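Extended Data, record C2 domain-containing protein
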Amino acid sequence: MSNPGSRRNGSSIKIRLTGLPDPFAKVVVDGSGQCHSTDTVKSTLDPKWNQHYDLTH
């Protein structure tokens, strides 16, 4: 599998991403089976989540 930024035969591959992301956060506590994901916040570079999770260790 090639690296998208690598050169092949003297040429380069360019990728342009447009638009805003739809960010979310995911929290996983290793070995506990606990996994929580926030809601997705559409079209923003400054997401705010008002969600709370109780995690144990």
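Summary. The mean pLDDT is 84.
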